[in-house]
Structure formats: structure tokens, C-alpha cells
Write a structure and sequence with these properties.
- With about 220 residues, the protein is mainly alpha-helical.
- It has helices at about 5, 15-25, 45-50, 70-80, 95-105, 110-130, 155-170, 185-195, and strands spanning about 25, 30-35, 40, 90-95, 135-140.
- It folds into two domains: about 1-55 and about 155-200, no CATH class; about 60-155, no CATH class.
- Helices cover about 40% and strands about 5% of the residues.
- The strands form two sheets. Strands 1-2-3 form a three-stranded antiparallel beta sheet. A two-stranded antiparallel ribbon has the order 4-5.
- The longest helix is centred in the middle third of the chain and has 20 residues, at about 110-130.
- The two termini are about 20 Å apart.
- This is Aminotransferase-like plant mobile domain-containing protein.
- One of its GO terms (biological process) is meristem maintenance.
- InterPro entries: AminoTfrase-like_pln_mobile, MAIN-like.
Length: about 220
């Protein structure tokens, strides 16, 4: 599926001064950071090395349905049960409930497929396409998990990069106080490309491997 590497990466929190500095130097028109040495940006190659996601594949596209009926029908078709949703927005599913149900699934053939779908959906909401709360995932990703044989055919890496660009563009607005993740991707990219600002000296780290975020 291509998600094994991502599942091994923990969550990086803090370092808000670094985040603020990067957002301040982000230019939405060019999707680049303007630094004293020139313009730089996160590329598909960076995402491939940091997260180990596949580059090639079908584009992730479609229309968004925020209705509760859509969420319920998709969840039943994919997970076999109704989800626990956010009290403020019925189109967001609680990641805590997803993790609990996944861990309780038996290990027969059909349940294993549901378990894999639960795990991927949890990664989408907690690592790749997170929002400010980091506790919910939008139901718009459910249709991508419906056909089990097609899950691995999508270009998850390009979608992750597009999500980061959009999050940076939103965060650079004067009236925005917080930024959506994926901060793991942004922080590791900054530390790899500018090792002088990394919290740990590079020579003390283990050798780089895919995904680079593991170290």
C-alpha cells in the first residue's frame, strides 16, 4: 500500500518558533520560502524521502459532500458501522474511536481489510492530512478507501505536498493564528535542508534511510 513507512513515524510537536519563521517567509504566489540565500521549497522528492510515499499514481480528486447521510453511508460501506463524529461538525470522524475500533477488530479475512482501512484512515487524519485539532479526520477521504484494490494506486505523496502548500498559504494570512499539519513533513524538511537549525547534530544521528523522518 505504501503506508508502512509512514506508520513508523511518530508525531513531532513544539518548535513553534521555527514554524513561525517559515510561515513568515512563505510566499503564496510562488509556493516558496524566501530566504537570504534565495528561494527554496518542499518538493515531491523531499516528500518521497521524508515519508516514503509513492510518487506515481492516480490523482486524488472528487467532490466533497458534508452531509451526515454521506458520512453514515460511506462509513457503513467501508468500516461496517456508524462512526463517532465531532459534536461541532458532523463531517469529521473522531480519530480516537477509529483507533479503538481498529484495535478491537478480529483477524479473519474481511476484518483484516477493515483493519487496514482503519489504519490508513487514522494515518490520513493524524499524519498526512491533519487539521488544527489533530483529533479528527474529514469524511471526504472515505471514498478513496472504498475499493480496497485501488488504495495503493493513488498518488498520496502529491496530495500530501498539495495539502502542505495549502496549509502554508492559509497560515500566511494576516488573520490566521494557527496552521494545519503536516508539521512532521515541514520540520524534517527544514532540518534536513538546513542542518544548522536542527535540534540534534547530524553527526550524532543514525544513517539516513527511507523514511528520513524516522531518525
Amino acid at each position: 500500500m505504501g503506508f508502512y513507512h509512514v506508520s513508523r513515524i511518530g508525531v513531532i510537536r513544539g518548535f513553534y518558533s521555527l514554524l513561525a519563521a517559515l510561515v513568515e517567509r512563505w510566499r503564496p504566489k510562488t509556493h516558496t520560502f524566501v530566504l537570504p540565500v534565495g528561494e527554496v521549497t518542499v518538493t515531491l522528492e523531499d516528500v518521497a524521502h521524508i515519508f516514503g510515499l509513492p510518487i506515481d499514481g492516480e490523482p486524488m480528486s472528487g467532490w466533497i459532500n458534508n452531509s451526515s447521510d454521506f458520512l453514515q453511508s460511506q462509513s457503513i460501506a467501508i468500516f461496517g458501522r456508524k462512526p463517532e463524529v465531532s459534536s461541532s461538525s458532523k463531517s469529521y470522524i473522531k480519530l480516537g474511536s477509529v483507533r479503538r475500533i481498529r484495535d478491537a477488530e478480529p483477524l479473519d479475512t474481511e476484518s483484516i481489510r477493515r483493519k487496514v482501512r482503519y489504519s490508513i484512515f487514522y494515518l490520513l487524519g493524524s499524519t498526512l492530512f491533519t487539521d488544527k485539532s489533530t483529533a479528527y479526520a474529514h469524511a471526504k477521504y472515505l471514498p478513496l478507501l472504498r475499493d480496497f484494490e485501488r488504495i495503493h494506486t493513488y498518488s498520496w505523496e502529491s496530495a500530501c505536498l498539495a495539502h502542505l502548500y495549502r496549509a502554508l498559504c492559509r497560515a500566511s494570512r494576516y488573520d490566521t493564528k494557527e496552521m494545519d499539519d503536516p508539521l512532521n513533513l515541514l520540520f524534517v524538511w527544514a532540518w534536513e535542508r538546513m542542518p544548522c537549525i536542527a535540534p540534534i547534530l547530524r553527526q550524532t544521528l543514525p544513517p539516513a534511510e527511507i523514511p528520513v523522518a524516522m531518525r
